[in-house]
Automatic annotation (TrEMBL):
Keywords: Cell membrane, Coiled coil, Membrane, Transmembrane, Transmembrane helix. This is LapA family protein. Residues 74-110 form a coiled coil. It comes from the Bacteria. The chain crosses the membrane at residues 46-71. Residues 44-97 form the Lipopolysaccharide assembly protein A domain. It comes from Thalassococcus arenae. It holds the Pfam family LapA_dom.
Length: 119
């Protein structure tokens, strides 16, 4: 199984390097369109940067993954909260059971109380 993982990672690396070499041209990224950048007060948000196209492609992929991970984490919050609530309830019920068993077994012989707990 380890060799399959290494083969997959090698194939992925080859594909990524090939994409990077094929997209070395410079691309200009603007934070605002030119028409909106001309609006007074918006010039503070308007800037441009030139990057190789493969950096733009890979940054877009990473940004999409991060947004997806955060979205999924937020979406599953209710499930994690429910699990935490149920775990707290189980711990409380276990404590109550031990207390009830201790009260029930306080007048019994120790050997009999141990046998009741085991069975």
């Amino acid at each position: 199984m380890r060799y399959i993982r290494y083969a997959f990672l090698l194939a992925l690396a080859i594909v990524l390097v090939t994409v990077a070499l094929a997209n070395r041209g410079m691309a200009t990224l603007n934070t605002l369109p030119q028409g909106l950048a001309a609006v007074p007060g918006m010039d503070l948000l308007a800037f441009s940067v030139q990057l190789p196209l493969f950096v733009v492609i890979f940054a877009g992929i990473v940004a999409g993954l991060l947004i997806g991970f955060v979205w999924e984490w937020l979406r599953e919050h209710k499930h994690r909260a429910e699990v935490a609530r149920k775990q707290a309830e189980v711990k409380q019920l276990e404590r109550e059971l031990k207390r009830t068993q201790a009260e029930r077994d306080k007048d019994k012989d120790e050997v009999l109380a141990l046998l009741d707990r085991a069975g």
